[in-house]
Amino acid sequence: MPRNLRLARRTWAGLVLAAAVAAVAAASAEDWPQWRGPGSAAISTDAPLPTTWSATDHLAWRAALAGAGTSSPIVAGDRVIVTSQIGHAPVAGGAGGGQPRLARDDRSLAGREAAIAEANPGAAGGLALIVDAFDRVSGRRVWTHRTPAVGPFPELHEKHNLATPTPVADGERVYAWFGNGQLVALELKTGQPVWSRHLGSEIAPFDAQWGHGSSPTRYRDTIILLCDHRTASYLVALDAATGRERWKVARGSGRVSHSTPVVIPGPRGDELLVNSSARVDAYDPATGALLWFTGTDRQTPIPSAVFADGRIFLSRGYRNSDVLAIRPGLTFRVPLILARRIQRTRARASRPPRGSLPTTPRCRSSSLASSVS
Asked: Where are the domains of the chain?
């Protein structure tokens, strides 16, 4: 299941986007321009931050969303941006079609789980993909971009939809990616389209069990996209200004990943980390060249890596996964049969299986904690 299926990250149709006072309302607050924020670390330097809130407490503003989605809002300059979906997208097995539950070991809790709400499932114009931008201080809707959703469509888990990837922004543009492969670059200030692509029709359908879950990663002047799907698996970097392909790396077929790639500083240059069902790969984010890999097969990876104190911290995902601490900087390739040996020699530590399905670590003050983000 995609990493955004957890209940805490749902964005429901008819509900609101709420801004915590200290985190978003202050114009001087830091940006949160991508999935898990600056450096993908899920740590904010703003303080103090509220630890509790409700429909009335610790809110600066709230605004109705155009649709429903499971992406996270981002903050870039004076804009708060979030994606959503209007209309109905295919669900694997149909409504209630035997899909796995988050609380499968607790029947009473699993019985209270519900599918994501649909926004105007019979809306005129059919299925549409939405990008909304709000004023950071007031919550006023500044612009809305709507584009028709074009197939082929994946069959989704009922707890999310095509608006699962979190957008990413730089100082000029916002880049919104959706679960069928459609990608649009919009002017940050006005919402005017700059360029668009549809990887699901241009390269291969987004055929991922339960739907696509990876978010875009920005590196310098490129947007990097992980497409690990059953029919085709690849990693591609697009020019942020034009949408043209900078580089593309084939990753075989049958790989599965709902993880978002992360760029870290390595001893010989930046490294792009990818967690997938086959293994953990490190690439040169400027060229797509494979630098090193480690690990063995793992089912349905969702977590992303974090980097702190010179080490990579990562849970491979799914239930009872190892939690690894790895030194970056391998400079050679080895056959997959040797990956377990590499893991033993390069890993700083490997805890017994305790990782959970969606958990990405968070590291601060020399301690490692689990995070649902």
From this structure: 1-211
